[in-house]
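Record 1 of the preview.
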Amino acid sequence: MTEKKKDRYRETLHLPKTGFSMRAGLIRKEPEFQKRWEDMDIRAAIRQAQHPAGDFVFHDGPPYATGSIHLGHLLNKILKDLVVRSRSMAGFDVDFVPGWDCHGLPIEHKVMKELGDEARDLSTMEIRKRCSDYASRFMTLQAEQMQRLGTLGSYDTPYFTMDPAYEGAVLEVFAALVADGLVYRDLKPVHWSIENQTALAEAELEYYDRKDTSVFVLFEVEDPSILPESLNVPEGGSVHLMIWTTTPWTLPANLAVAVAQTAEYGLYRINHDGHATLVVMAENLKEKVLGTDAELLGRCRGADLVEGGVRYRHPFIDRVSPVVVADYVTLEDGTGMVHTAPGHGAEDYMTGLKEGLDIYCPVLGDGTFDETAPEWLQGKSVWAGNPLVVENLRSSGLLFRDEVFTHSYPHDWRGKTPTIFRATEQFFVAVDNPYGKAGKSLRQRAELSTASEIEFVPEWGRKRFAGMIESRPDWCISRQRSWGLPIPAFLTTDGEVLLTEQTVRTIAAQVRAHGSDIWFAAAPEVLLADYDPTDDIGAPDSVRAAGQDGLSLLEKGADIFDVWFESGSSWNGVLRERNIGYPADLYLEGSDQHRGWFQLSLLLGLGATGQSPFKTVLTHGFIVTGSGEKMSKSLGNTIEVEDLLKQHGADIARWWVASLNYFNDAKVEWEFFRLASEEYRKVRNTIRFMLGNLADFDPSTDRVTFGPEDAQTLDAWAMGRVAGLTMEVDEAYRGYQFKRVREALFNFCNETMSAIFMAAVKDRLYCDQTDSRRRRRTQTVLYEAAGTLIRLMAPILVHTADEAWLALHGEEQDSERCVHLELLPEVAEVAVDAGWDAVFELRSEVLRAFEQAKEPMEISNPMDAGARVRLEAGQRAAIEPFVAELVDLCGMSRFELVEGDSLAVEILDLRDEPRCERSWKRDGTVRERSDGGMLSQRDAEVVGVE
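->
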């Protein structure tokens, strides 16, 4: 009987009703929605729609087609998708083409490792076929995984660097650089991977700590009598120059000792191996190296040693070499006398050129010493050579000291093995050669673009990028591997190189037609069938003289391009090749690409077109563990993307990405995704409440138009907050501030709607007359707020937003309606009274007073209470129009305003007054009605009883 009485009015209430479930079921639903979009061809539909804002050119940097995607990919691809979707919904046409880097060492390394011993018996073409198959397999896998994240792009027509059209476009960029005289071939030291036997560029290096041996070595002066008089050399004694090096294995290639021109050098008498020994070194470093016991005999400047023609004997090779001046000699470490091996260092090489020294390198590609090295080193690796050199120096008495130390050392980024500097014949792009009508170099043009023509997000990227441009060397673009785009250079019988704009464009046409395998399969005369050497002024004289009959005598070069040259040409292979637009509005990658893809794309764009290929560069950090460590499978501290999607779904991952201050490294723990799930549930349940209370609302007939008379209603205030949300999110999307977007959306759901508006309007939604203006006005707010919120969150929660959009419009998944075909909402203009700030301040005072009164008054339910508020006359008049809304805002049954001298809040205990059985309010109008129930006046009228 009690239950029946309690529920007697339940059927008269307008309780929420919606098919938008509280449980998201993302693991099951997301693939269903992705299938729906595939069936709709949603990307084509978006592209075919009107784009009032014009084009937005956003270019994808290509990941390597190796392995499954990891959390770094997830971060990168979701950030890019937030850009694609937010710009599309802002009215731009975004033709986003996903891409893959398919050539180069990363893939060849994996393939050769999988093949093991079998790899030794394979031809170049067989290796290339295996690499192509490998890249294709992982392109397909990664594309599926990226789409599972909800990303949008032309996955049916992606770009990939082994595509013949793309390869041809890369060669056309190369041809432009050749035409400008920016490409040259030279014997000079480059970073060399011993493991993979190929040259490497700076962008292909990683630095790790390594233990090595440093040595202080005595080089005997050939003729002490020509040393400067100021050194006060004793008659008849031998004198040694003391050098310091951290690479003892390079000593066989020593051809000079470099000194600082103006530095002071001293001649010291020391005790070495029990004998008095005379050594020359920088005076500033004397105590650090020799201690306090060394006796100073005399001084001179570095320039005095050079001007006097001082020479020295190599410590274990029959060779005499000079002392030279170099401006890179510092007095911070060592001895101020720098061991110089032009074949093993960039600065040493420049000194070698200046002084006319040989660019001597006695080390082979496999890292072993050749036959020109001392017999006891021949055939030994450079790493084995280190202790052998040290021991030889020790036994000869020319080793002053050796020390084991730890330092940061360059490693091959794929094999993680230490590299060396080694002089080889390579192709380079010159960064300091003036070219074009302006007569500026690539470096100068890049510095100008960086300073004033490119926007950096975050701004600190500009200084970092500029520093890397300023310090970069000429770009070594050649590699000694099989899997890549060949550098189309030919060698004549007398060793000259045939590489001109015409020859490169001829090969580019062949590659476009047949793919880069044609280089390895066809003879030179076939490749150059459409080339007339007699009409090419850039060709060597011997080639022009021989004409086409001499083409068969040419030999094809064996080098391939650095993969960064290929990916750095993507603006031509994609944006211009597909007529998408040039330059791009945005490039977005990890901050490591300041020295990689961003920088090299800029150099190639400037070299070939004179213009930067991008207007804006946006960078993000890296994924690290919760304690800040790098994630690594070998360390077992990774979170696999597949596991993340199985446990939480893509929308949770996307919400997490949107929550990041992504300019910095992103820490990851499972707990972070659990917290993201909780936030997601709050957003979902907010939308569910809105949708549930719109079940009987038809916007075509029930929508209320707000007028000035509504300005003091809670509904008008809420519409104002919807407008504010729209403006803030739109601005944040435009600035790529996705964290700000996420915060605005969450705070709107958690605070504005859940904690304030929805809590306050439940009574009118559930209990008011169905068609009352107040209820319809509140439903209008819910409809507008839901439609706005769903569209604003659509770039982030792509699956949930589309599900909610269908529910808002009462349609099923087979509907052609889709939120991703919508534009971001416009700002709704509704008059909102300026007094709302004071209202909410007063509300806070009342809620605080109720909290303080709950325990002493033993009141737990605010519906059992009322508030009597005293205000001075002016304040009371200002608040009076809001009293009806303050009742619901405070969640109480009654709100009274009285006049007084100052603010005072009194909490009223209403438990002795009757309570409405339908609305639970004690508003002073509750009494027994004609049906025997206790109802307020409002509820009695709705039910239809007296």
